[in-house]
Every structure is written in C-alpha cells, then in structure tokens.
Amino acid sequence: MALFSLSKINFLGKTTTSKITYYIVTPLIFSWIYAICAQCIIPLPFNFLPLYPHPLPIFLCTMLFGTPAVLGYIAYLAQGICGAPFFSPNSHLIGLARIYGPTGGYLLGFLVSALFILVLRNKIQHKSLHLSFLYWTATTIFFCIGMAQLSFFVPTEKLIQTGFLPFFIGDYFIKAFIFISCYKIMNKSK
User: Fold this and answer.
1) Burial group, residue 55, by CB count within 10 angstroms (0-12, 13-18, 19+)
2) Is 19 helix (H, G, I), strand (E, B) or coil?
C-alpha cells in the first residue's frame, strides 16, 4: 500500500489526478494539436501572410471542450515564445520576436477570440445561425487585433489587401461551414 496517492486527494469535488489531467495534460495535448495545425500552411505568392487552418481548430476545440482548449492555446503561445518550433514556418522570426512581428497580432487575436467563444459557448443556442454569428464575431475579433499589429509593418493603403482580403472567403465562409458542421457532428456524440 502506497503511503501517498494522488488519486485520494480530493479538492473541490475532483481528485488531484483528474485536476492534473484537466488543467495540465489535456491543455498540453491541445497545444501540440495547434502546433501541428500551424505547420499546415499554403504560401501565397502575392502576400507574405500564408493561408492556414489555425483559427478553426482553436475555435472548434474551445467550443467543444471549453477551458482546457483555451489553456492549450495559452500553452501553445508559451511554448512558441520559449522557442519551440510551434509557430508557422513562414517567417524567420522565432520565439518572442514572432509575437512582436507582423503576424503576432493574429496569434494574440486567436487567444482573445477563443476567450470570447469560451464565455459565450454555454450562453447561446447551438443552432447554425447562432454558431455562425459566434464564429464570425470571433473571426472579426482576431482580424481586428491582427491587422492592428500588422499596420506597424504594412502601409495603411495596403493593410486590407494584405491582412484581410486574401483570407476573407476562407475564414468567414469555408471555415465557418466546417466549424458548424464539425461541431454539430461531434456534439451529437456527447
């Protein structure tokens, strides 16, 4: 018989082992999923910002799993800032320099958007129209934050054409459709 067992310590209705899993292990797994998704990029020949699926897994995981998914994105950012090759490979900037670079606003915008989804995920009806508005609002949030930082690196007259237009259809329509479809399919299995 062990003198000390983590599973026997009870705190706020959860055993220590389940709390470790919920607040540490699960977010780390999410952070690695986000890192893998960040590597899936499609370079655009006319733009230094690539196409990538990043907001979709962050938003979908947040909608399905809540707090661990957001903690996972925070862990993703922390590991990337510390130098892990987590951020998309389209830039020579690594670590903290990436956060201060042209795409850092988008990385921070994803976090604010995920927090927005986390707050509203249990307060909205889970119908397609409501999920669409939730996704579109979260997307608008990350675009606004991303373009605010991008404006320090791109002339104002080229900001919309560099930081928004190439991604508009993909982020507002295609990814929104995938988000709603995947959420509805995965939520039925719960």
Assistant:
1) buried
2) helix
Q: What is the pTM of this model?
A: 0.85
φ and ψ at residue 49, rounded to 5 degrees: -95, 125
Domains plus CATH for the chain?
A: 16-41+50-188 (1.10.1760.20)
Using DSSP, state whether 53 is helix, strand or coil: coil
Give 44-67 pLDDT, tens digit per residue: 787 777 778 889 999 999 999 999
CA distances from 111 to 46, 92, 151 (A): 27, 22, 19
Distance CA 184, CA 181 (A): 5
pLDDT value of position 63: 95
Tokens of 115: 């927090």
- Would you call 85 helix, strand, or coil by DSSP? coil
Asked if 113 and 139 touch (Cβ cutoff 8 Å), the reply is yes
